[in-house]
Design a protein that fits this description.
Largest sheet of chain B: 6 strands, mixed
Mean pLDDT of chain A: 89
Distance between the termini of chain B: 37 Å
Number of strands of chain B: 10
Helix content of chain A: over 70%
Radius of gyration of chain B: 18 Å
Protein name (chain A): Phosphate transport system permease protein PstA
Shape of chain A: flat
Keywords (chain A): Cell membrane, Membrane, Phosphate transport, Transmembrane, Transmembrane helix, Transport
Order of helices and strands of chain B: EEEHEEHEHHHHEHEHEEHH
Number of helices of chain A: 14
Largest interface: A-B, 26 and 32 residues
Organism (chain A): Streptomyces glomeratus
Number of domains of chain A: 2
Domain ABC transmembrane type-1 (chain A): 135-341
Shape of chain B: globular
Mean pLDDT of chain B: 90
CATH topology of the largest domain in chain A: MetI-like fold
Largest sheet of chain A: none
CATH superfamily of the largest domain in chain A: MetI-like
Membrane topology (chain A): Multi-pass membrane protein
Low-confidence stretches of chain A: 1-5
Number of strands of chain A: 0
CATH class of the largest domain in chain A: Mainly Alpha
Number of helices of chain B: 10
CATH architecture of the largest domain in chain A: Orthogonal Bundle
Order of helices and strands of chain A: HHHHHHHHHHHHHH
Oligomer: heterodimer
Strand content of chain A: under 5%
Strand order of the largest sheet of chain B: 6-7-8-3-9-10
Chain lengths: 354, 258
């Protein structure tokens, strides 16, 4: 065996044989080469097949080689590491390919003109036009939904963590769980039947906001609850022991301590509802014109715009290009929101510097 | 300024579990009273009943009387918030507010209660930090976060925060147990100074510390695990450590058990 060659003549009880640092890379390259070779030899033309083969070979190869050289315990350790790497790649590849595809197709018509014009006088099959009306609609609908959902959600979480005891708190927790699982189309149908069919209010951006708020609320409650639970009890006690009333303790000590995390949670909830299509399709209805009043008449929104450009394109390349560019705008919007959330979380995080 | 405490027949529960039973004692104003005893005997629980922090724990409730200058803390209509303004507390682990600067931490009690004059705030903060022997160490970085201080400094910051609201009584729950001997010495010196203005009650596991800082010492014990803790005896510290009247106290102090 190679053990003796690696460790020298005397066997150390503390230092076993170990693979060189570059060995995972070598095994990875090797398994990709073998995977490619097999698929070429067998005449398979899908890249997924050789990649999957390479992944399986990588894990198996790591185990066999490590078990021979280093022993079974280290082999298990290396297999776990290699599994994590394979899973990481499996998760990242679709994401990267999605972003890449959207970028490639979206940049064709993505310019200032596209961002500042509506589809007002442009037929679906023509070139030109833009997403100004859709951006406006999305901002207003998501903004209103946030204004409705965040105070209710944060206060619910404060109730659950700081005050909630017994049956009521358990019931609230249960219903928040149920709400988390509501499909977005069901939230849309609920608002449709209540707001539009029973109250006869007509399609509007606000109707969409109501449905989006329903979807957003449980996410806000859950994330805020987790953040509030992270605030050490000692801080609450320190404040109470100073003779500060409980509500001021929550307002001035508990919430400021957790505000970074709460903001992140809210931003992620916003990002989630920004892409919701089903309730918007049912309630906001969509328009090609600029409607800046969310309370009256149909509006547009980005996900709805993407869907309608695709559905009404009649095979026109111009509409497809616009749909891709709008998708790019949507992804960029959500990404910017996430970056802002991270910035706020870092800025507001409890300070530890000297 | 400092007020006396008279406890009679005090029993405290966590839910249905009786933690301490039938405790009666008096704490003189402008003195240091130390509570000693084995872990789980209810010293901290008893301490927390003295400013109604016990009921903050879920299921915590209390029977009996605690008189602060002849006013019952558990009387009808007594506001626990008002009680805690009179009876301040320092905890085992230093717990400065992480979002606040050193200055804001000390000013927190006044600011959060809302009854202060802006012009006074600087004076109060300086006086409290001087009172806690921390002023010289932090005067140049009052706007830095309090969590950047060392453990001993953080604990003195918490003491400054507690005395900034001018309580009548200061409760300390093992204030030095997380600190090194030097910081402990600093805090013990501080206790000696503070007792001229406040009534101080301190829980400690360190019997030398009790002997060093306190005027009177109370020994708590529990009959068995699961049984409620009781007050065994309270007397002048010197007497407790030289010639206690109960055998169990002597056993505990001389290290024969616990």
């Amino acid at each position: 065996m190679s053990t003796a060659a690696v460790t020298g003549k005397r066997r150390s009880t503390l230092r076993g044989a170990s693979l060189p640092k570059w060995s995972p890379w070598a095994i990875g390259v090797g398994s990709i080469a073998v995977g490619l070779g097999i698929s070429l030899a067998a005449g398979l033309d899908s890249s997924i097949q050789w990649a999957l083969m390479a992944a399986v070979l990588f894990v198996l190869g790591t185990y066999v080689i490590a078990a021979r050289v280093e022993g079974r315990r280290q082999a298990k350790d290396r297999v776990a590491t290699s599994l994590v790497w394979v899973c990481f790649l499996l998760a990242v590849i679709p994401l990267a390919s999605l972003v890449w595809e959207t970028l490639k197709r979206g940049v064709k018509v993505f310019d200032v003109y596209f961002l500042t014009h509506s589809m007002g006088v442009v037929a679906d099959t023509e070139t030109g036009g833009g997403i100004y009306h859709a951006i406006l609609g999305t901002l207003e609908q998501v903004g209103i939904a946030t204004v409705i959902a965040v105070p209710i959600g944060v206060m619910t979480a404060v109730y659950l963590v700081e005050y909630g005891r017994g049956k009521l708190a358990r019931a609230v927790t249960f219903f928040v769980d149920v709400m988390t699982g509501i499909p977005s189309i069901v939230a849309g149908l609920f608002v449709l039947s209540f707001w539009i069919l029973i109250l006869k209010m007509g399609y509007s951006g606000f109707a969409g906001s109501l449905a989006l708020a329903i979807l957003m609320m449980p996410v806000v409650v859950r994330s805020t609850e987790e953040m509030l639970k992270l605030v050490p009890n000692e801080l609450r006690e320190a404040s109470l022991a100073l003779g500060v009333p409980k509500w001021r303790t929550i307002l001035k000590v508990v919430l400021p301590t957790s505000i970074g995390g709460i903001t992140t949670g809210v931003m992620l909830a916003v990002a989630r509802i920004t892409g919701e299509t089903a309730p918007v399709l049912l309630l906001v209805w969509g328009t090609n014109f600029i409607n800046s009043d969310p309370f009256k008449d149909p509006q547009a929104s980005l996900p709805l715009y993407i869907y309608q450009q695709y559905a009404n394109s009649a095979g026109s390349g111009a509409a497809y290009d616009r749909a891709w560019a709008a998708a790019l705008a949507l992804i960029a919007f959500v990404m910017i929101l996430n970056l802002v959330a991270r910035g706020i979380a870092r800025w507001k995080a409890p300070k530890t510097g000297r | 300024m400092a007020k006396r405490i008279d406890v009679s027949g005090l029993t405290a529960y966590y839910g249905s579990h009786k933690a301490i039973e039938d405790i009666s004692m008096s704490v003189e104003p402008r003195s240091v009273t130390a509570f000693i005893g084995p872990s789980g005997c209810g010293k901290s629980t008893f301490l927390r009943t003295l400013n109604r922090m016990h009921e903050v724990t879920s299921g915590g409730r209390v029977e009996g009387k605690v008189l602060l200058d002849n006013e019952d803390l558990y009387g009808a209509g007594v506001d626990p918030v008002a009680v805690r303004r009179e009876v301040g507390m320092v905890f085992q682990r230093p717990n400065p507010f992480p979002t606040m600067s050193i200055f804001d931490n000390v000013a927190a009690g006044l600011r959060l209660n809302g009854n202060y004059k802006k012009s006074e705030l600087n004076d109060v903060v300086e006086r409290s930090l001087r009172g806690a022997n921390l002023w010289n160490e932090v005067k140049d970085r009052l706007n830095k976060p309090g969590s950047g201080l060392s453990g001993g400094q953080q604990q003195r910051l918490c003491i400054a925060r507690a005395i900034a609201v001018e309580p009548k009584v200061l409760l300390m729950d093992e204030p030095c147990s997380a600190l090194d001997p030097i910081s402990t010495l600093a805090i013990e010196d501080l206790i000696g100074e503070l007792k001229e203005r406040f009534t101080i009650v301190i829980v400690t596991h360190n019997m030398q510390q009790a002997a060093r800082v306190s005027d009177r010492t109370a020994f708590f014990n529990l009959a068995a695990v699961g049984q409620p803790g009781r007050l065994i005896e309270i007397d002048e510290t010197e007497r407790i450590f030289s010639n206690p009247s109960v055998q169990a106290t002597e056993d505990y102090i001389s290290g024969r058990f616990g």
